Amino acid sequence: xxxxxxxxxxxxxxxxxxxxxxxxxxxxxxxxxxxxxxxxxxxxxxxxxxxxxxxxxxxxxxxxxxxxxxxxxxxxxxxxxxxxxxxxxxxxxxxxxxxxxxxxxxxxxxxxxxxxxxxxxxxxxxxxxxxxxxxxxxxxxxxxxxxxxxxxxxxxxxxxxxxxxxxxxxxxxxxxxxxxxxxxxxxxxxxxxxxxxxxxxxxxxxxxxxxxxxxxxxxxxxxxxxxxxxxxxxxxxxxxxxxxxxxxxxxxxxxxxxxxxxxxxxxxxxxxxxxxxxxxxxxxxxxxxxxxxxxxxxxxxxxxxxxxxxxxxxxxxxxxx
Length: 321
Hints:
Blueprint: E1 2-6, H1 12-15, E2 16-20, E3 30-39, H2 42-49, E4 66-69, E5 75-78, E6 90-94, E7 99-100, H3 107-111, H4 115-127, E8 135-139, H5 144-155, E9 159-164, H6 167-176, E10 180-183, H7 189-196, E11 202-207, H8 212-220, E12 221-229, H9 242-248, E13 251-254, H10 260-263, H11 265-280, E14 288-292, H12 297-305, E15 312-316
Parallel strand pairs: 8-9, 8-11, 9-10, 11-12, 12-13, 14-15
Antiparallel strand pairs: 1-2, 3-4, 3-6, 3-15, 4-5, 5-7
Helix pairs in contact: 2-12, 4-5, 4-11, 7-8
């Protein structure tokens, strides 16, 4: 089979190589899956760089989120078990963690439903307790993770403010349903949020960026608001001023969705059922901005690494395109 292999750490476009390899052999409790589509996530770039919290042995195949077909013909979504990731014709995954692919979504959309939307659902509902009528601010609102949070926030009845970088991404954020869009490249984010909220600030802030975005979050969070720390796409991990959180009465909430797979897998299943229902009625639909064949995976991962994308890029196998 063909699979992208990483033999040394570095930039994805330089270290990913498309090779002919033997199909992976499932271990205990695992199943072999025929990949139909693989969604590209920022962690795929971090894996190539050797900067992710999980460091699979070299060589490995990246690709942490797929829509695939089981040997008995079921269409599922899964997180492949590294080092046998999803940028390949076949991958392996834990049998107990397979989830049915929603009928309302095609292969590329289904592949993009899992990590970003589960993260958004857990962040907004499980951690922050977002309620209808509240104001949600989403950083990187046109990106893969941010776009999921925007749709989930609107589905929950929140007023959504999206922060983006550039006019093109601003247009995407409006199409996603943001009530207010702020272009951080041409506007003062703090001033714009305060103007949009009458000086009150946002009740919930969803931050997959870190760095300067977190500084803005602390300045724009409402009294008794909640900042959900999802990731650090900026490359800078902020150091929160806890004295500021104390005097302003807000919460800083961490979210590592992957932990729920081991600590509360039933809740992951419940979340998937909720997402499937939302997809069935059209309340959420992964924004797949680009679909590329397997041969284009390395360039696509590099685009994600460089922050040049809106929504998701999916690697789609030719026979299921």
